[in-house]
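Hey,

The postdoc asked me to send both predictions to you directly instead of through the lab channel. I've kept everything plain text so nothing gets mangled by the mail client. Protein one:
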Amino acid sequence: MNDPQTLLAGWVSALERELDLPAGTVDVLAVLDLTRDAAHHVARPAGPVAAYAAGYARALADVAGGTPAAGGTADAVARAAELARGWTPAPETP
């Protein structure tokens, strides 16, 4: 039986092929860190949502010539993780 790291590596390789991405496109550790930060600092469902949004933003930045839509650093994954780590929900209004 394969260990989780081997299974994950195989899955990511298959996913990259299926989505027509160059091999090595997915930074697995960065995505796992982002999902962990969002899940722990915001709410569990925020993890996959943050990963999707960061990937989408990164793709838009790539299409726009590497310029991120919202400015700042071009690395959407790092920006999303930073937001999650510093997240403080807005106070609820009665």
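Protein two:
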Amino acid sequence: MNMKKYFEQGMMNLLEKKNIDSITVVEIIDEVGSCKGTFYKHYIDKYYLCCNCLEHNVYGAVSVQASSWKEFIMQCLGAFEKHAKVVLHAFDSKDVNSARRQHEKLTFEFLAKKYVANGGDPSSAINMITLKLYSEAVTEIIYKWLEGGCRESGEELYGLICAVIPQTVFKELREQIA
């Protein structure tokens, strides 16, 4: 097993117990039994490690090539539910490099791609801002779901996510939303 795998497993172990903002690089190094030089050889900071960790251990079941918004969201929810505590603790930070911001970016990219493919105007700043804000709202809804112990079904949460979709987005994506 290479060092990156050890660091990712160490991060998974730590995220099971506490949120990303309270984890230190020293704790990660101690968890792995390595040194700072090795950590910084592979990672810029703990947030970068966290994002890589989620990408390899959680997001594997999520496809940005999903055919619809529902498929994308249901894939996210299924993957997140399997690792609920880890994802909750990873999403607990709003740092610019955090996993939460990474998910917002992934969601935005999925929506923007579908929006443009369905005739939406990519040069419309207001529509791109709307997609960005909606992506943040979706991530917050998922975070609250994780925080609440994933009590609602994926279908119920998907319904809530669709209920708050802005009309400008809905008009362009209505076939993708169904």
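Summary for protein two, as requested: The two ends are 43 Å apart (CA to CA).

Thanks,
C.
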